[in-house]
Amino acid sequence: MKILIGEFMDDAAVRFLSAEFDVHYEPALVDDTRRLHDAIETADALIVRNRTQVDTTLIACAAALKVVGRLGVGLDNIDSEACRARGIEVIVATGANAASVAEYVVTTAMMLLRGAYASSNDVAAGGWPRPRLSQGREICGKTLGLIGFGSIGRVTARLAYGVGMHVVAHDPLVTADDAAWREHNVSHRSLATLLMEADVVSLHVPLVVQTRGMLDAARIATMKHGAIIINTARGGIVDDAAVVDALRAGKLGGAALDVFEHEPLAANSALVDVPNLILTPHVAGVTLESNARVSAMIAQRVATALRAMDAR
After folding, report:
1. Mean pLDDT over all residues of the chain?
2. Are 153 and 242 in the same domain?
């Protein structure tokens, strides 16, 4: 059986699959649509990250496709309904990159609250901005507001709790009497209340109709003065232009955006030279360790699914 991998995957996982299956591994294939469509014609399984668009056009080219493995958890690049209609199983790596995202959120919150880590050039050049950089804030005692309380949100809560934060969360899919709230020392909040209480707001929800534009200018206006926004979920959930306006006005104390509606950003992006803004290229969940975990999980589960199908 043939497995097509068109984005980067941990080498050990590729070797594991290659020992049993016919594997075509080409990490840059995602950037060549014509060749991708040709290569998928005879593939029984496809493994992707977030850039490959598994849409009706691609699925129509994949006559033999039985399984799609997603090296991550978001499904906004996969037409799940079209896959379901064709009987294609979609497998995600639930929980495998949660620790990496959690570390990114807590580390970035610390950096933005403290505000002292962009001074290297000044200090090296003989400057001494000590008075200005002595106004930073500690993370201990601050309130983290999680929008979304799934597997990644829960790991983030545990890490934040360990550095002395109070944690509140909003998730309409987790009922108020769910044991997870008590287990993770997290208080259930409405979205409006969370935004008013939190010193740091971190997003952990998928991009769907209900969440598009969720954190807009009106909601940002209800947040604490000096609060921080961290988006590691999906672009389009946060109104980036409203974040920029709030940062320039001093309403927000900082923001970190790891995801964007259109990736990569245009060269003349409005996010250039914005104060107290950290931008990273969709890497919150990608570390050496998480890549190995995610890749191993998907390799194992895709192999298991193909074996089961072959045995029928």
Report:
1. 96
2. yes
One-letter amino acid of 67: V
Q: Supply the CATH number for residue 215's domain.
A: 3.40.50.720
Backbone φ and ψ of 126, nearest 5°? 100, -5
Q: Would you please indicate which residues are annotated as catalytic (active-site) residues?
A: 234, 263, 282
**In which residue are the tokens 């200018």 written?**
217
Residues 104, 212 within the same domain: yes
Quick: pLDDT tens for 61-103.
999 999 999 999 889 899 999 999 999 999 999 999 999 999 9
Nearest-CA neighbor of 25 among 58, 47, 55?
47
Over its C-alpha atoms, the chain yields an Rg (Å, rounded) of: 21
Other CB atoms within 10 Å distance of the CB of residue 103: 17
* Other beta carbons within 10 Å of 107: 14
Comparing CA positions, the residue from 97, 107, 112, 232 lying closest to residue 159 is: 107
Q: What is the pLDDT of residue 311?
A: 80
Q: Please, what's the b/e burial string for 114-133 (b: 16 or more CB within 10 A of its CB; e: otherwise)? A: ebeeeeeeeeeeeeeeeeeb
DSSP-derived 3-state class of residue 140: coil
Measured from the Cβ of residue 37, the count of other Cβ atoms closer than 10 Å reads 14
Residue 16, H or E segment: helix 11-18
* Region of 187 on the Ramachandran plot (φ > 0 left; ψ -120 to 50 alpha; else beta): beta
Q: What's the DSSP call for residue 260? A: -
β pairing state of 143-147 and 166-170:
parallel
Same domain for 38 and 109: no
**Buried b / exposed e along 265-297 (16+ C-beta atoms within 10 A):** beeeeebeebebbbeeebebbbbeebbbbbbbb
Place of tokens 């929980």: 95
Give the CA angle between residues 40, 42, 46 to the nearest 5°.
45
Domain count, the chain: 2
Q: How far, CA to CA in Å, does 90 sit from each of 45, 87, 265, 277, 297?
A: 10, 9, 29, 36, 13
pTM (predicted TM-score)? 0.93
